[in-house]
Design brief:
Serine Threonine Protein Phosphatase 5, Tetratricopeptide repeat, elongated, single chain, mainly alpha, 431 residues
């Protein structure tokens, strides 16, 4: 019976498909030729020739195959935007009615006020449209929230993202409660790909304000819906920066378990290094030492920069276990190539070596090393830092870790700079 049903379906469906293929718009050969030439010209770096060929293709489309005018117009606008010919790109996008692309181009140009106006108009339009356009509504809410986040209007971004999350929850509840006979077309919005982003975006809004405890439950909710190693590692980072080392360790172990073969040894070694740092922070130097040695035997340990940082960490835990001779030799070797360490890693290593030298009854060498460490810190403090979340959040993390591994004074100095930068960022955004 299955075969007869299949044959009957073929008899009904295939003629209709053939008719559709005959009536489907086809590009004119000259249009295809010009577009191909445009693509090759751009790939070779000849942007001027690429533009000429696209304009020629647009002319052919207008005369011979009008269904392809939007396609070539969009490509031409993309080329203009890529060359920072903003006004020309915006004019073409407006001609197409592609208001979202208008907003994106304005954002790329840095004209956030004009972009916000466009995005608010899009949101207002989508709020008036009926249910089938739910995806457009969610997208416009998300994009406006992202813009508000970018310009530092965190309260407004937070409010909008909470609305978006509530909309997700309401819609998911309706889908879950629907009868089993409900066809899949009733939820055409790709729910599985749209649940986590609002949670992560709101978490980032909190993180950029230093409100890490508020970000934690959001990342947990995102993980419930989309279990992936990147989110789990993010959760571990948040637990560590909020001083919940037990949960940080558990999340890091889960990250290790979630790795697949493609992600391989380097990422596994990174998580093992993190486990060593967590063990050191909670005072278990023996476990930390074992972890650091294991990572040094991996491909991560063979990398010059990461290997230097791990050896410095190992030197610190050896010092804490009174293995001063081995610690001094290891740290001396690390400090012979100071360019492999970041300024804070270098200052930490120098401070630890100074302490080790005092234990080895070499006070003059210890004082010299301490002075070098202070010089490195002062040079770092006197540097120019961008007042952006990408700079400030890692500083917050460094301050927490420094305080927990015995560098309390340095931690205070790092935290002071992070606080000053956050105030500066907020002032800039207010202007």
């Amino acid at each position: 019976m299955g075969g007869r049903i299949f044959c009957a379906s073929r008899e009904r469906v295939l003629p209709a498909a053939r008719e559709a293929s005959r009536t489907m718009a086809q590009p004119h050969p000259l249009y295809t030729k010009f577009r191909t030439k445009a693509q090759k010209a751009r790939q070779s770096g000849d942007l001027e020739a690429g533009e000429r060929y696209l304009l020629a293709a647009a002319g052919v489309a207008a005369e011979k195959c009008p269904d392809f005018v939007p396609e070539v117009t969009n490509e031409l606008a993309y080329v203009y935007a890529g060359s920072e010919r903003w006004d020309e790109a915006i004019a073409l996008y407006r001609q197409m009615g592609a208001e979202d692309q208008v907003a994106r181009t304005l954002e790329r140009r840095g004209d956030y006020e004009a972009a916000e106006e466009v995005r608010r108009a899009l949101l207002a339009r989508h709020e008036q449209e009926p249910g089938p356009h739910l995806h457009d509504l969610r997208q416009s809410m998300h994009d406006l929230a992202a813009l508000l986040h970018t310009v530092g209007r965190y309260d407004e971004a937070e409010t909008l993202l909470k609305r978006l999350i509530a909309l997700h929850e309401e819609h998911q509840g309706r889908v879950r409660g629907a009868p089993t006979a409900t066809p899949p077309e009733s939820d055409p919005d790709g729910e599985s790909t749209w649940v986590s982003p609002p949670f992560q975006k709101l978490a980032r809004v909190y993180e950029d304000q230093g409100r890490y405890a508020h970000a934690l439950p959001l990342i947990r909710q995102a993980l419930e819906r989309t279990p992936e190693v990147g989110l789990m590692a993010h959760l571990a980072w948040l637990y560590e920066i909020t001083d919940d080392l037990e949960e940080a360790e558990a999340a890091t172990l889960q990250s290790l378990e979630m790795l697949d073969e493609k992600q391989g040894e380097p990422m596994a070694a990174t998580f093992l290094h993190a486990l060593g740092a967590i063990a050191e922070q909670r005072g278990d130097e023996g476990e930390a030492e074992a972890m650091y040695r294991e990572v040094l035997d991996s491909s991560l340990g063979e990398h010059p920069q990461s290997g230097a940082a791990i050896r410095a960490d190992l030197g610190r835990v050896l010092h804490k276990q009174h293995e001063h001779e081995e610690a001094e030799a290891l740290l001396r070797d690390v400090l012979a190539a100071p360019h492999l360490l970041s300024p804070l890693e270098l200052a930490m290593a120098m401070e630890v070596r100074a302490r080790v030298l005092r234990k080895l009854d070499r006070p003059e060498d210890a004082e010299a090393e301490a002075r070098e460490a202070e010089a490195v810190i002062r040079a770092w403090e006197g540097g120019e830092f961008e007042a952006s979340p990408e700079v400030i959040s890692p500083m917050d993390w460094w301050a927490h870790r420094l305080a927990r591994v015995g560098h309390e004074t340095l931690a205070v100095r790092v935290k002071a700079i992070a606080s000053a930068l956050r105030s500066q960022a907020m002032a800039q955004m207010a202007d």
